[in-house]
Design goal:
The complex is a heterodimer. By secondary structure, chain A is α+β, with helices and mostly antiparallel strands. In chain A, 45% of the residues lie in helices and 15% in strands. Chain A has one domain (2-241). Chain A is globular, with a radius of gyration of 20 Å. Chain B is mainly α. The two termini of chain B are 16 Å apart. Classes of the chains: A alpha+beta, B mainly alpha.
Amino acid sequence: MARTVLFSNTEIADFINENFEACWQSVRKVPLVSIDLGQGNVIKRTLNGNIATYVCFSDGRIIDILPGLYEPQAYKDRLKQLCLASKYFSKLGNEKKNFELEKYHKLQESRLRAGKTPARFIAANKTGDGEIEFVTKYGDHDKRWLEPLKEKSAYKIKALPTGDLASWQHLLDDVRLNESEMRLKIHNYFAKAGSSSKEESPAKLAGWLYKYVLHADIEDPYLGLKTVLDGTYPFPEIKANR
Amino acid sequence: MRIRVAALLCLAMLPGSSAPAQENTNRWRSGFPGSKMAIETPLKKLISGSFSGSIEAKEAEQKNAKYQDSSAFPDSKTIKAGLISWRPNFEAACALASKSKKPVLVFQLMGNLDEEFC
């Protein structure tokens, strides 16, 4: 879905091509759900949402992670922020960079935990080449992504939009979850890891991220779903033969 | 994840949502551990010196390359991975970033971004 909603969107693609060196990594084979209805009719679908966007320095060290799928404008805004973050931290010496990066994750974690909007990087000019400030009081951050999800609403199937897929309510709900609960875990991880996080790379961190943040254990052949799949299935002999 | 599985199964049962599907058994056989092709392709890259960085990075790259190399999956349907100028791998993106002074964006996913199902 990211390919359709984000990477085929001209505005997002132009922004990424202009501001990042981008690559993609596969962490495992995609899980597919197939329902064989007989007479040659098979429905095959993927399970969406198990994706992540890392932003790193050129030495491979991770600055921050956007977990899951985003709505285009929210995605662009967060990428802009991480682009500014990269410029902000890159200007510092190595020791100061470690210290400031840790401080950044601690601050964002504490603000999210308190239900406040995250701190923002602000550039003095549009290109972001001038002075960059990191501030906690900034008015135009989109607060709607921090509103808690109503539990019942999350389980309800929402109809596909008639127009742009980016406006699908499921997707908007996902962004709220990504920006609150999931990013909180990520900031917490980096705040605790401190300077040792410089050893992490996206490939090394994927196991932790998928298991504890995205709730899909990529090291488990069943992605951690076996108990759910078997728990409500009453035929043990068929389970064993599967 | 659990909610998504349930939602997906329900969605799949909606009328009009059927789609033609083909089992990619050959792809499964050729792309997973034990496959000659899956082992040889990254080794070829290793010998040709296209790697740089640590042993861990090379191992991760080898693991990753078997998914990224579409030639390992002759039956898979390859499509354009959006409008992004994707670099071939993480090391290449980092090398370019050190010259261009841009940050590196890594998009992680299950499956391959340039294939129908991902």
